[in-house]
Amino acid sequence: xxxxxxxxxxxxxxxxxxxxxxxxxxxxxxxxxxxxxxxxxxxxxxxxxxxxxxxxxxxxxxxxxxxxxxxxxxxxxxxxxxxxxxxxxxxxxxxxxxxxxxxxxxxxxxxxxxxxxxxxxxxxxxxxxxxxxxxxxxxxxxxxxxxx
Length: 148
Fold this sequence. Notes:
The chain has helices spanning about 10-20, 55, 65-70, 130-145, and strands at about 25-35, 40-45, 60, 75-80, 100-110, 110-120. By secondary structure, it is an alpha+beta fold. It has a single domain, classed as Beta-Lactamase (2-Layer Sandwich), CATH 3.30.450.40. InterPro entries: GAF, GAF-like_dom_sf.
């Protein structure tokens, strides 16, 4: 999807809807990195239960799936978030009813701009090709994600 040089919140929502549909997923989040407080700030979401909205508004780097992807600067995947015992997912994440989940960092070169995450309602192992496609989607919007 082509985004304008200065995307609006509606543009980001349309971008996320497109990505979620392209990967046949039911949930998605797009976060912007805020270096002032070292948190990921929610830009757009799709399919997230209302009770989780306060939790996902600002995510510390290193916490949860998105925070881990940002910290590691690599994709973080859970085949089944509902049964995962790795400790990566935060407590409330199970309320999404998502099972297969994938979060990738949004990078502009080495600069962290945010994270992009998607989820399915069934257990799912994302392929290396799918991971690379999501990374490419994230990279394509990286420079526009940070405030101008």
